[in-house]
Amino acid sequence: MSILKEFKAFAVKGNVVDMAVGIIIGAAFGKIVSSFVGDIITPALGMLIGGVDFTDLVITLKAAEGDIPAVVIAYGSFIQTILDFVIIAFAIFMGIKGINRLKREEAAAEEAPTTPEPSKEEVLLSEIRDLLKQQSKS
């Protein structure tokens, strides 16, 4: 079998295609979550905490000299990245929690026991039973 045929067989297998679709949807979902955090959550949170922005916090190790930029430890940017991660993780957690709740409700609705209609024989036997009860009372 030629390499081209082997590659074609590999590339069109269901798992590879499913994985590719998952990656594409995951990337699109990542954009949605980033927009949600960056455009909705972060501004609201920034307003609540008084517009604090950690990205400007630095420790200068060596001042700038001419064309050489300053050497700094940008710990504020690191703090902001951690804060962004926590917000994104919480947003994803809440989304997944909501989806799981919907799935549980759907599964519970599907599992709800339905009483099957009695067969003709069962109906007939019930009628006979009822008639016998009435005869024994009289």
TrEMBL record:
Query: Which chain regions cross the lipid bilayer?
Result: 21-52, 72-96
Membrane topology value:
Multi-pass membrane protein
Q: Does the keyword Ribonucleoprotein apply?
A: no
Q: Does the keyword Secreted apply?
A: no
Q: Name the predominant localization.
A: membrane
Q: Which SUPFAM superfamilies match?
A: Gated mechanosensitive channel (SSF81330)
Q: Where in the cell is it found?
A: Cell inner membrane; Cell membrane
Q: List the keywords (alphabetical).
A: Cell inner membrane, Cell membrane, Ion channel, Ion transport, Membrane, Transmembrane, Transmembrane helix, Transport
For this protein, the record's InterPro entries field holds: Mechanosensitive_channel_CS, MS_channel, MSC/AndL, MscL_channel
- PROSITE patterns attached here? MSCL
Q: What does this protein do?
A: Channel that opens in response to stretch forces in the membrane lipid bilayer. May participate in the regulation of osmotic pressure changes within the cell.
Family under the similarity heading? Belongs to the MscL family.
**Which NCBIfam families does this entry report, sorted A to Z?**
mscL, PRK00567.1-4
Oligomer status and interactors: Homopentamer.
Under which name does UniProt file this protein?
Answer: Large-conductance mechanosensitive channel
